[in-house]
Amino acid sequence: MGDAAKRDREDAAAWGIPAARVVRWPVLAAVVVAIALQLVLPSRLVGSLGNRYLIPGLEILLLLALAVANPGQIGEEQKRLRVLSIVLIALITVANFASLIALIHALLYSSKTGGRVLVYASVPIWLTNVIAFGLWFWELDRGGPAARRQVSHRHPDFLFPQMSTMGADPTWTPGFDDYLYTSFTNATAFSPTDTMPLTGWAKLLMALQSLASLITVAVVISRAVNILG
To answer: Are 117 and 221 in contact (CB under 8 A)?
Structure first.
């Protein structure tokens, strides 16, 4: 019985266990930061989306709806709230990719006038990229934050070090900070580091984020060298 219990604990550490407590406030705080980063971008980088306050305004409305409907712990599966959450993350992602495309076009084809401003603008775009994909990882892993609380949740989409390390806490489950850290390291290294994607969608998202981060860094550094030269 002792060996069987030990194997059960090892299996739990390898594949995760139901999350005991999932709070929404760190996610809401990250969304607030993402919206603030969008608002500090130059108008020329958000002009393709119409009024510069349109997308942030919609994001704020969705954020308020989520905060009012479920401000604390995330309980049982709430499909309507999850749809709102996915739409909110999608808006942040689309707006940031549109700003990234506008930034690349401006850096490649505009004159040196305003070049420093554009280079500085790459910082909030890169940071928003980290936040947006951290939100995607948190929202989609194992069916979502509410589904992760169920005993019957599906197999993980990400393999965290704590899930495959002998002697790790068998009760450990990933929180939003773990997904955000995974997003940061992926955007910095342009590849997975200590957390491995296990499913097709997880690999696709990480590849897309790495590509966006690589293009941002490559184009910005090239223009910065040109400006300094």
So the answer is: no
Query: Which domain, by its residues, includes 214?
Result: 2-228
Q: Is 88 left (phi over 0), alpha (psi -120 to 50) or beta?
A: alpha
Q: Alpha carbon of 208 to those of 79, 97, 223: distances in Å?
A: 26, 11, 23
* Domain count for the chain: 1
Note whether 5 and 29 are within 8 A (CB).
Answer: no
Q: Are 41 and 167 in contact (CB under 8 A)?
A: no
Query: In DSSP terms, which residues pair with 159 in a beta bridge?
Result: 196
Ordered mean pLDDT values, 10 residues apiece, the chain (229 residues)? 49 58 83 92 73 83 81 62 87 92 82 69 92 94 83 84 74 88 94 90 95 88 64
- pTM value is 0.85
In Å, what is the CA distance from 188 to each residue of 41, 74, 104, 169, 181?
Answer: 21, 30, 19, 28, 10
